[in-house]
Input
Amino acid sequence: MKVTRIAYSRNLNAHKYAELEEQARRLGRVRSLVWDKHGSIAGVGVRDRTIRDQWLKDGTAEQFGVTANAWKETLRDAMGDIQAHRDAAKVEVRRNIHRRNLPNDERKRLYTALKYDKWADNPLLRRLMRKSLRRGHNHTHNQIVVRSDLVSTFRREGDDRVWLKVAGLKPRQPVIIPLNTTVAPRGTLRLILRGGVVEVHYTVDDSELKSAQRPCGTRKLGVDKGYTEVLTDSDGRHHGTGFGAILSAHSDKLKERNARRAKLRSIANNAAAKGDHAKAERIHRHNLGTVKRTRQDRAVKTVIRDVVYTAVNRVADDAAVIVAEDLTRAIRGKSKGRNMNRRLAMWTKGVIAQALEDASERRGSSLRLVNAAYTSQVIPGTSTLGRRVGDRLHCPHGGGVVWHADHAAAVNILKRDGDTEISLYTPHTRVKQLLQERDDRQRLRLPSQDSSSGGCRCGERIVSALTTCGQG
Output
């Protein structure tokens, strides 16, 4: 599997950045031309080499003002984006065809025509594609694609960090970019210019990563996602502590910043309405930019990814089998208030899900997804629904049995693996019904509770269950 790595420029002077910015702007015009002429149905089946030969023949390429390799790679990259755009629309069209009551031969013929881009001649496919395929336009004017055989790197004496040499606006006048890494990027590069910094995107095989060379553990662990920490495993250990503090601080900062920006935007709009366009333009130029905001958001996302991947790899150090809930599903429930809802919206479930998948694949462990309905509300070792108060789970029958809700959820998630009655897609209402039925059966098998002892039969089953699995 290929993964993307990003290197950043280090102390790049303004003249070099301005030259790269001008080159990216001109290549953005090439992208716009490709999308405008070939992003519609008229471009179906047209190859990038055909467009390239036509531009060289009619003189279109002479107006770009960049080297031939630069605009050719941009053309190929833009045509790849257009094809990906069409392929995404084909998914919905295939579903539409599948829902129709068509003979198998006719359905197969339509699938084949769709696969090999012969759909423009079929009235049904053409209508469905026009409905699903939105006409795209280019909005990218800050990228430069460098072909793999034109990538040149070197190191200077006494410095282990890498220097990258790329073509400039004029032939035989390259631009040299100092990077902040000691690993030389290779393959086809994508340079993205943001706020005076050049990002160098390149792909590597995941087997070459350090995490792929670390063996996984030998145990089977259940994990539950959290807010204050990334994961809590079935042993009760918290991984990625401080995660919630990062999300809360960033969310609160966004709230304050957006409130100030909204006030400035209102002032600018009022000034424009009164005819003072100079004042409105000054506010938009100096106070409502996005360069600094984008840089800060990118820095926070980098910190979040580091914390998440570190936590997941610590779990993989002990686990050969990781049992987790499906984090791609939406969380539904009661509103927790404006501030908490905003902070939970920052909760990057997608990053955690991707980290679990990447770590298990690279390190050879197995990832199993289970239905997590009511796992943080059931007393471990039983089917009894407890009383949830914050991050504490209390036994409903007294006895002083208190669990950490995330730890209880991790234990229940581990137990949920292999449950033949509760599958990954069992509705939560059915899950609650099954839990109540199991709890009733357990209560019928228990002896009558001695009122004078004041003990908790639920707690006895908890201790027994923990002792059996080695957590007592």
